[in-house]
Structure formats: structure tokens, C-alpha cells
Amino acid sequence: MINLKPIKGYLDKIEIIDQRLLPIHKEYITLKTVEDLANAIKTLAVRGAPAIGIAASYGLCLGIKDSNREKIKNDFYNSYEILKNTRPTAVNLFTCLNRMKNKFEEIIEKYEINQIKEILFKEAIKIEEEDYIMCRKIGENGYKLIENLDNINAMTICNAGGLATSGFGTALGVFYMAKEKGKKIKVFVPETRPLLQGARLTTYELSEAQIDVVLLTDNMAGFLMKKEKIDIIVVGADRITKNGDTANKIGTYTLAILAKYHNIPFYVAAPSTTIDNSLPSGESIPIEFRGSDEIISFNGVTTAPDVPTFSPAFDITPANLITGIITEKGIFTYPYNF
Q: Would you please indicate which residues are annotated as catalytic (active-site) residues?
């Protein structure tokens, strides 16, 4: 039903769908160095917490593709540092990098150079395959929340679909599962300013999957909830802390407050690897701030060239605003105890 493969990993290159070009062009670009990948992550050519982690796993393989025995440690750790410093908020990046680092340190003294490269590449493949399985399971668990409903009206924000993962999605995975099960579902999608991931990416995915989709501007969400019966809101997550506070795309916090006021169930869908038990609450999550250009100009048009900007890429939704957190292990409810 949904057939997206946003990342293709090879021993000597990575191919990604350039998400900056969607929905006008679906185009793979080839990344041949760690620096290429780091730039792709920073500029959002590849984005979405699980997808970033998967790409970074392949990126470490890219970093040692030309290494000999004398250089491999330096090349690996240099690549690790470059990728670690691309984006601070999504925990999946660090989880995947550390998993690859642990595997590297486990095998570095035991195998020949070509074997080391092959074992690490297989580990990156495994990370990607595990993500797809987890996303399918998240979809199945989330479907349980709506399986007794007909003509479902749902809502999401940003893009937590196949493009943001290995191909199936977290929040959108719930909707894809409903479609697979034969449910009639309509999804309302705020555009997600300033980079329009909702308008450009989520509407594209849902349309490709033949799911009814309705686009609205971000500031229309409250009035929509008042006028339309919204059965459920499902969003993704970039990091979930021990108490259930959740970092997700800017605007998620606003949506959660509106959902609470209108008595709409508000769920977060994410793999368990997104849960960061080392952080007690959302106050500890590092929030990425982006440059002014993303606010003051778009598609070549500049609106306010001389005005200071406030541009967080993410916000924090407090745990008490979240009805439940859907993972591959089940659905957790407030108060959260992972």
C-alpha cells in the first residue's frame, strides 16, 4: 500500500530521497562521504528521528570505506563525532551511533579489515530492518484504538510516516494499518510551518497510499476541532523522557493543548528506542534552534528581512497532555512507567 524506501545503504555510498524536493520531485541523491551525509541531515534532505538514525548507521560504514588497519579507528571516531553533532534533539541518532560504536569496539581487534567493514554494514542493515518491524507493530498497536470506529477522522502534525523512518512510519503507520484493515479514514494535516513538512510530505504520503487527506494551516486547528468531530490525534516523537514528556516538531504542544480543551484523545507513536530514560523530564531535552532564513523567506520570497526571529525546531509536550504513548511493545498511559 505504501511503498517508500527513503534510504538505500551500500558499502561505498548512501542514496536518499531528497525530501527538500518533495512533493514536486521524487529524486534520490547519492552521498559518498560522511560530510555529504552530515550536510544532508542538517539541511533536512533526510529527516525524521528513525530515518536520521538509520542514515547515520550507514554513514559510519561510509566513513571507513577507504580505511586501512592503521587509519580505521581514527576514521571511525572522526565520522562518529561529525554525525553526532548534526542535530541534537532526536535521540535515535545517538542510539544508533552508539550501537554501531559498541559493535565496532567489540570487533576491531578480532577481525581483518574487510570483515570489520562487512560486519558493521550488516549491523546497519539490521538497524533498518528492525525499524520497519517496529513501525509495523506500532501501527498494529495503534490500530487497536480505532478498530471499533467507522468513518474515522484523524489528525497529525509534521511527518511521521515512511519518509521519516525505514518506510512505514510511526504516527502515519497507525493510519496505514487502518487502511490495510479496510477502515475508511480521513486525516487532517496542519501544514507545519516554517518548512511545511505536513503540507509537502504527509499529504504526499497519504495521497500515495490513497487515504483521504485534508490540508489546513497551522492556525486553523482549534477551529477545525470545534467544527469537525476528530476521533483521534496521533503524532510522532523525537525524544521521550522518563516521565513521558515528549519532544516533537514545533506546534505539537499547541495541538495537545487544543486537544485537551476539545476532549480529543492525543497519542504519541514512537519506537521504544525514542524513550530516553536518562532524562527525567522534558526540561532536560536539548532543543534545536534553526536559522532565521527558514522563517523570513520561503521559495525565494522574503517577508521580513530585518526582523529578529525565534525559531525552535521542536517543542515539549508535557506528559499529562498525552493520552497514551504507542510503541512496538504496547500502549503506555499516564502516569508513564517505561
A: 238
Side chain identity, residue 7 = I
Tell me which residue of 273, 266, 277, 263 sits closest to 318, measured CA to CA: 266
Task: Say if pTM beats, i.e. exceeds, 0.85.
Answer: yes
Q: How many domains does the chain have?
A: 2
* Closest-CA residue to 235 (of 165, 298, 303, 158): 158
Q: Can you say how many angstroms the Cα of residue 164 is from the centroid of all Cα atoms in its chain?
A: 4
| In a shared domain, residues 55 and 168 | no
Question: What's the pLDDT band for 85 if we cut at 50, 70, 90?
Answer: very high
Q: Per the domain annotation, does 338 fall within a domain?
A: no
Banded model confidence at residue 306, pLDDT cuts 50, 70, 90 = confident
Describe the chain by its helix, strand, coil percentages, rounded to 5. Answer: 40, 20, 40
Provide the percentage of residues in the chain whose pLDDT is more than 90: 93
Q: Can you give the residue range of the structural domain that contains 306?
A: 140-333
32 and 169 in a single domain? The answer is no
